[in-house]
Amino acid sequence: METADVLKAIEKNSAYITAYDFEVYDVAWAVDQMKAYKNFMYLSIGIYLFLVYFGQKWMENRPAFVLTSTIFLECRTPHNYATSFWGFLFILSKLVEFGDTAFIVLRKQKLITLHWFHHITTLFMCWLGFVGYDALGRLFVMNTFVHSLMYSYYALKALRVKIPRRFAKSLTTIQITQMFLATYVNFASVYFMVKGHPCKRDVTTVYLSGVIIPTFAYLFIKFFRETYTRRVPKIIKSE
């Protein structure tokens, strides 16, 4: 979608959302920056994966860091709500969220596939979606809500606050629900496109979402089963 088309879409959508003065900004500039610095996004993902792999190698024979207070500060990074203005900041926050992997690596905790895959693909999809003002991007509100709860949870855990296990279980359930909702929207998009109905989505983004989102769903369900439903074998004490 061209920048001019994006601006038209925003003007149309503003009919049901009243923007505050500070939210009115140069959208064309933001879209053009995302287009111009797309390679920066790819480079960021590459550096992230490089540091994840070699960071774990570097920590193999070193003691784990504690980083309790540092984690709390990082977890308080704000996540924001709205459409274009906050959506732009939302994408930038995905770069900041790369930092939470450092705590896992430095503390020598298990780094699961879901974690790093979620980080790189979310940045990738959000970046492309913003450039094309993809309609699926409206789900970022739900994603922001979940992440606000999730990072608050991590912050409290870092401060050694006891939190009921069912809270973490609920967070994962919401994540899975989000994936199914996004999958439904994606199928609906394909249906509208096939039928020739207006659909403000880029075909490439739809296809990519069709692969990435079900993968998310699978990984989240796998994590849920392994973490919350797998029974721990009882140890029978010998008399």
TrEMBL record:
The keyword GTP-binding does not apply. It is a multi-pass membrane protein. One of its GO terms (biological process) is very long-chain fatty acid biosynthetic process. InterPro entries: ELO_fam (IPR002076). GO terms for cellular component: endoplasmic reticulum membrane. It catalyses: a very-long-chain acyl-CoA + malonyl-CoA + H(+) = a very-long-chain 3-oxoacyl-CoA + CO2 + CoA. It comes from Allacma fusca. Belongs to the ELO family. It is found in: Membrane. PANTHER family: ELONGATION OF VERY LONG CHAIN FATTY ACIDS PROTEIN 6, FATTY ACID ACYL TRANSFERASE-RELATED. One of its GO terms (molecular function) is fatty acid elongase activity. The keyword Lipid metabolism applies. Its EC number is 2.3.1.199. This is Elongation of very long chain fatty acids protein. It comes from the Eukaryota. The chain crosses the membrane at residues 40-59, 85-106, 113-133, 139-156, 176-194, 206-224. Keywords: Fatty acid biosynthesis, Fatty acid metabolism, Lipid biosynthesis, Lipid metabolism, Membrane, Transferase, Transmembrane, Transmembrane helix.
